Structures are given as structure tokens and as C-alpha cells.
Amino acid sequence: MNFLRRRFSDTSATIIPNGYFQNLGSEDNRDKEQQLREKEKEQRDREQKAMGGQPPGPMRQDIGVGFLSSLTGRTNKGKEKVLLVIDDQHTSWAKYFRGKKIHGEFDIRVEQCEFAEINLASCTETGTTIDFKGVRQGQKVVRSFKPDFVLIRQHGRGMEVQEEWRNLIIGFQFGNVGSVNSWEGIYNFMDKPWVFAQLIKLRDRHGTDKFPLIDQAFYPNHKEMLSQPKFPVVVKIGHAHNGMGKVRVEGHSDFQDIASVVAITNCYATTESFIDSKYDIRVQKIGSNYKAFMRTSISGNWKANTGSSAVEQIAMTEQFKLWVDECSELFGGLDIVSVEAIHGKDSKNYIIEVNDSSMQLIGENQEEDRKHIAELVLQKMNACVMQTGSATMLTSASSLPNLQRTSQSNSPNTSKVGTPTSNQKPALSGTPTKTQTNPPPLPTLDLHDEEDTLTNLKKTFATIFGDI
User: Fold this and answer.
1) pTM value surpassing 0.70
2) Residue 22 bridge partners (DSSP)
3) How many H-runs (helices) and E-runs (strands) does the chain carry?
4) What is the Cα–Cα distance from 433 to 339, expressed in whole angstroms?
5) How confident is the model at residue 421 (pLDDT cuts 50, 70, 90)?
6) Residue 29: predicted pLDDT
7) Please, what is the end-to-end C-alpha distance for the chain in angstroms?
8) What kind and span of H or E run contains 366?
């Protein structure tokens, strides 16, 4: 014992720190614990990636909650609805919808192009996909998108024979894409005589005094253009609009010349009496907004909408309102419509045609009319686009059973996700409720680690008491 006292009191001997025996092998244990933690972290990362979410932070997250959070994040990135405006580039419609929202949560992204620049594919399951190919600022642009709503500001047929967009209109209708005006109306307005036939019914219903429709004759081809109408007449060839395809004919010989032109165009033709007019009348309706205009030719052209003309807004009379209200009921309803009439030198009015949403805006208040159109489109989009509240609820409800099965299989020590207790009802809302989970078990050493610790302890005692 004296020897041992001298041995431990010798300052030259090895100094044993306080708690040395308790910390024997602690460095090896810390390394193994670090390795276990890294393995657990890698396992959680693999599980989270398999569920489609982001890797968790230092604290363990519930798998079901992380999955729904990842869905919510992707939804926030895509909270926008696409509005396709079919119009030329003279008017930029994007500025009229800047800052506007659908149901207060969806932004509006405007895609503007012409019929000639798009193609589409419609499917009953995936909807309508647009392929756009055009030139913007001198650069060729190619992209695809899915429209949620369409504003049509272009006629369904161009001036040339091959410029017919009937198939595209059918594709939009097939894809059940909302629009202003309706696709039914756009399709029916592709042929002017078809629309005029509806005006004849309105004249027969209200009488010539209330609905003064001009007399007109229809010829399906040039072969029947043999009768001699009362001259002078105006011959309209095919589906042309905006003052195009109209010819004033003074006599029978000129009429036969026009018939020969119709023969090579392979188009139908109509004739109507020429009215020596004082001015043209334009009555338009955009949603619930009414306006009436008087247009007088300055250049002396018998077509007031061609050349220079003076446009003046006039008072809206009851007769004008009757005209445009009746025409707005055509083909299931027209949100944007205008009635064109002539006020002759005989002080009588003559209705000559009706235009749909492709009508040109005239007068000094065109900017105001565009804002009315934008408000109308916004109202229609709010009515057509479903709010995300019910959609998110259905998504969460359908996802909960799968999340429960996944949580049970991957985390045996974790409580079931979304399983309500007897006093708790399941919440099917856009944001799932937090669930309580048991803390992960602390890492433990196996028997092999214990044997290594005992071996190190024996070696230490042998070194200290080797001289005994």
C-alpha cells in the first residue's frame, strides 16, 4: 500500500484527469453516434424525396404535413389564369387586366395573338392546349399554353378564301373554354346571310315600323343572278365585312359583270337596295353599357365606314335600345353586339347588319369601351373559374388515406396522420392540422461496442499497474 501511495503521489507519473475512467472510449462512441445520426438523416431525406417534398431541416417533420405543404407551395407558384385575347397587335390588352384578380387570388396572364398565329388540340380530359407561333419585336416566338378564357376581337373568317378559322372555333367549343362572345355566336356570325335570316324573324315579330330591316336578296351562286332587281343596288360578295366586297351597281349590264366575278370566286352573293343616306347609325351594347353614334362621310364615299368620316355620339332612344336588345338575344346571347343602320335622305332608318364581339370601336371614348370590355371579361371569368377553396378541400380529402398508409409504413413509431380521436373531427381544409409525433429513439450501442470499451479499459489498467 505504501508503494501505491508513492506511485500515485509521484509528480513524474502520468496525471489521470478527473472523470477519466468515465470517459474511456467516449471519442469512439461520439463517432459512432455521429454516424448513426447521419444515416438517419439520409434515410429521412430519401423518404421525403420519395414523397415529393423538400428535405427536412434539423428537426424531424411529419411526412403527411410535409407532403401537403409541398402541394401548397406548388399551387402558390401557379396561382394565375390565362386569358387569351384573339386580336391584332394594335391594341395591347394586357394593361387593362394588370393588377386584376379572379376571386381575389388568381392573377390574370394575358396572351394576345391572332387566329392565323395559333393552332390547338382539345381533349376531354386535359382540355385545350394552344400552340403559338408568331413574331414579336422582330423575334420569332414559339410557345404553348392552356387558356382558361378567351376574348374574341377578330372575325372568324378573314378576307381571303383560305382564311377560315372554323376548325379552331370548333376546337375551343370542344374543349369547353369560356369566351366572350360565346363560341356558338362566333360560329354563327361567320356568314352574314345566316345572321340576316335571324333579323328577318325579328322584323316579322316586331313589324317594319319598330324594326326597319332593309330588303335583301340571296344568291347561292352566280347561276341564279339573272333576275333584274330594282337599280341601283349594292352587291355583297361572300362573307366579306368592314366595307370590303361591296359594289354599287347602277344597271343591268354592270350587274351581269358582277355575276361573272361571283362565278370565279365560288361564293354566294346578296343584293340590297341602295339607300341615299345622310349618315350611318351605330348602336352598340357592351355588357350593360349602351351607346349610339352618328357617322357622316367626309370624303364623299357612299360607304361611310370607308375613307374619312366624322363620328359623333348621339342620344340613346327607345327604338335604338329595342334594336340592340333584340339582337343581343341571338344565338343564345351576345355580350358584345352592335347594330348598323342607315338614315336616308327620306328621313327613314334602315337596319343593314349586326356585328358581334369583333366589331370595331369608334368615337372619342374608345378607351372607355375597352375598359367596359375588360370589366365584362373579368365578370365572366369570375363566373367560369372555380375557386380554389373547394378544389383544395377535395385534394386534401383524397390525399389523406394515402398519407396515413405511407406514414404507417415508413414511421412505425409515429402516430397515424390525420386519424381523428373520438372528440376530434377530421379537418378537410386547404391547410392540414398539425399531428403529434413521438420523438425519435436515441441511438444505443450494441454488444460489440461494449466489448471494445472493456478491452480499452483493461489495456489502461495494465499500463498503470504494470509494475505490480
Assistant:
1) no
2) none
3) 11, 17
4) 58
5) very low
6) 60
7) 11
8) helix 366-384
